[in-house]
Amino acid sequence: MRAPSTHLANLDLNLLVSLRELLRERNVTRAAARVGVTQPAASAALSRLRRHFDDELLVRHAGGYVLTPLAAQLADQVEGVCAAAERLFGTGHRFDPTTSRRSFSLLVADYTIAVLGTALSSALADRAPGVELRLRLVHESFSNDIGERIRLIDGMVAPAAPRFDRPDLRSVHLFADRWVLLLDAASPAAEEDLTPARLAVLPWIVPFAPDRGFSTAAPLTRQLARLGVEPDTRVRVESYLAVPHLVAGTDRVALVQDRLARDVAPRLGLVTRECPRVDDEERPTGIEERLWWHADHDSDPAHQWLRALLVELTARL
Fold first, then answer.
1. Which CATH code is given to the segment(s) 91-176+288-315?
2. What residue stretches are annotated with the HTH lysR-type domain (predicted)?
3. pTM of this prediction?
4. Under DSSP, is residue 116 helix (H, G, I), strand (E, B) or coil?
5. Phi–psi pair at 156, nearest 5 degrees
6. ∠ at Cα 125 (124, 128), nearest 5°?
7. 248-293, pLDDT tens digit by residue?
8. Rounded to a whole number, what is the largest CA-CA distance in the chain?
């Protein structure tokens, strides 16, 4: 079969929106309502997309539809492409949040949602009711192609890291936090002197732990490295919010953000302890969460509004 041409002149770019909604909804009728077309029109778009990609994209399973492996791969790509197209054609225009139907896409950790999500969602509902917010969870071990990834979205909330030191990236301070040790209140270790030597032999819950070795690329593992602790990791999890639930009822320990610990510790019977000092050094450094965006977005009025909103909301934390 002849490979389909990918030259833009040969493509119906309206299919991008249809593809995005079909992959989001996994339902032709709901996708049609989202795009604002009839159900037969959405079905016709799906047929065209299937021919173009030579793939079913959506297949029936247990009374519904699931994505094919190719469709799952396309899902992230089409979100970025549509967001970039919206920014491209909106650049230079005045942005009115009260009437805009703009879509904003942010990469955030689940911890960030716990800290900022309620305030951000409430502010958007009040000030920009037609705006769509898409939050995509990012973990600390994501690929190093940050420049290209962030170009296709509105921004990312994360602490500074060496890989963000690029001339095409911008950032602004949002809020600060610090690392604390988290233990079950009934754990014998909760009453002990938690020296680096003692921490080295305790069992650990570690979010976003590398599969092999002990990388210091991520903020959390950098803190462990400063303590000289290579954790005896018993549970790895791709989530910060899950960590306290995995510590509860065990003799295990974790290093977590203080804002998260203060929110959940009383409910789960957990206690926090200060990180130990190493010789005469200060305790592990604090956390500075920043909003990162690509320089291409600097002059976009909608993006400027979003940046100002995030700075305003986090100033109240």
1. 3.40.190.10
2. 11-68
3. 0.74
4. helix
5. -140, 140
6. 55
7. 999 999 999 999 999 999 999 999 999 987 665 555 568 999 999 9
8. 71
